[in-house]
Amino acid sequence: MTREERYASIYSHDIVYCPPQEHGCAMLEVALGCSWGKCLFCDFAKDPFHVHSIEKIEENLKVLGELQPEKERVFFLGENALCLSTEKLLRIMALTKQYMPKVSSFAMYARFDDVQRKSDQELWQLRQAGLSDLHMGFESGSDSILTVMNKGFGSFEMLEGAKRLDRAGIGYFFTVILGLGGRQYRNLHALETARLLSRMHPKGIWCLNLKIWPDTPLEQMVKRGEFEMMSHWEMLQEEWIMLQHLNVENCFYMDTTALNQYTIQGFLPQAKQAMLAGMEELLRRSMPQ
Ligand code: SF4
User: Fold this and answer.
1) Which domains does the chain have, with CATH numbers?
2) Residue 84 contacts residue 122 (beta carbons within 8 Å)
């Protein structure tokens, strides 16, 4: 087997996705799919949920350790790898350090209910073992929208979860979906998302325009006229309202889908006014006639 073939052999799919903030770290597949898998807009969780055995993970770690011995950080693949038992996660972290001795930190995707199921003691143990950051679908701060979209948790669980992660010293990066409330909840989405985010300490916020994926329940809602999709211009306008009301510290903010073609990014709070001005300029230039 060539080096490329050996590398490809440790992943279930030809293309391996990880959050942009984690590009450059080693990726270890610990699970496939999402243990929830019921968000109406979601197209990411096509694989049936499955957690790999320790034996399979160890086999793959041997290959990863040989191919990428210099890596210092490992991202655990799986749509919400934090749903694995703490015992199993700690075992995988220990094995990773055995095969990749330079590794000192870990990151993974997580849902807020995964955090809720862990005790403070467990979160502390994971932090001590090197769990540095979680990447979480925040989506919206509005309970109405989270309920309609069947997210499976609400703003109370999110706020409590974030406070517990803060206490454990585990960082968190969020994705926010612009337009997720459709035209019906437009201002509510912007204001409640900003309000909830402002009570937390995310290291990063990544905004993405809502996309209606084929064969999702949300696509059916659109076809039945139950969800009114916003235009890209309206989503940028919604984002402007959200950013204007957003007050966070030491947070890297980015929108990679502004008007479906531009990227806006900067550190908050320093770059807030510049980003708002950039959005205003884009809105002015592309104002619908
Ligand atoms: S938690 Fe994430 S991966 Fe799972 S169904 Fe919802 S959006 Fe999809």
Assistant:
1) 3-285 (3.80.30.20)
2) no
